[in-house]
Every structure is written in C-alpha cells, then in structure tokens.
C-alpha cells in the first residue's frame, strides 16, 4: 500500500503504511530495507534531512547490494548534497 500512496503523492498515508510494516517486524531483510528506503525518500521530499539520512543509513545497514541499496545510496547522496548546499536546512532556518 505504501508504494501506491507514494505514487499518489499521499505521503502521510505512505509513511503510516511503511511504519506499520516496520512495527510488524518483517522477517525478510529485503522488505525491511525497501521500507527504510521509501521512508528516506518520503522524508527527503518533506525536507526532513535528518530523518532521511537515518532511514537511508538503516537500509544500508540491512543490505549492502541490490536495488534497495543502490537507491538508498543515491538518497544518502542527495541528503549530503543538500546539507552542503543548504547548511541551515532546506527552509533556511
């Protein structure tokens, strides 16, 4: 469901759906890694760089190869770029 909500740009619903997956503690490490990766991109879209970094890093702790790790590394790179370009945060605070 979370992926569908992301595609519909219903980020709060997507976050809730993905957090429910984590609450249930998925037995499959890949499912957990993908869930953190999606949460990272949701946080990135919401300009929450700290949470995005945490989610992408967690995904990379779980898997170190495959598509989920590639996307998590790309997301982490975006976070790092934004932190360099916007040292006071996206809102300029």
Question: How does this structure look, described?
Answer:
The protein is built from 5 helices and no strands. Helices cover 74% and strands 0% of the residues. The termini are far apart. It is mostly helical and 93 residues long. The protein is globular. The mean pLDDT is 93.
Protein traits:
Serine Threonine Protein Phosphatase 5, Tetratricopeptide repeat; 5 helices; 74% helix; 0% strand
Q: Could you tell me the strand content as a percent range?
A: under 5%
Largest sheet: none
* Mean pLDDT over all positions: 93
Low-confidence stretches: none
Taking all Cα atoms into account, the compactness measure Rg is 13 Å
> How many structurally independent domains?
1
Overall geometry comes to globular
Mind telling me which CATH architecture this is?
Alpha Horseshoe
Number of helices: 5
> Fraction of residues in helices?
over 70%
Termini separation comes to: 34 Å
CATH class label: Mainly Alpha
């Amino acid at each position: 469901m979370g992926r569908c909500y992301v595609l519909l740009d219903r980020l709060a619903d997507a976050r809730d759906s993905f957090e429910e997956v984590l609450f249930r503690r998925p037995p499959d490490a890949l499912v957990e890694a993908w869930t953190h990766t999606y949460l990272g991109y949701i946080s990135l879209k919401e300009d929450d760089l700290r949470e995005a970094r945490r989610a992408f890093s967690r995904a990379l702790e779980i898997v170190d190869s495959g598509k989920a790790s590639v996307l998590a590394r790309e997301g982490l790179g975006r976070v790092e770029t934004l932190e360099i370009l916007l040292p006071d945060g996206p809102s300029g605070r």
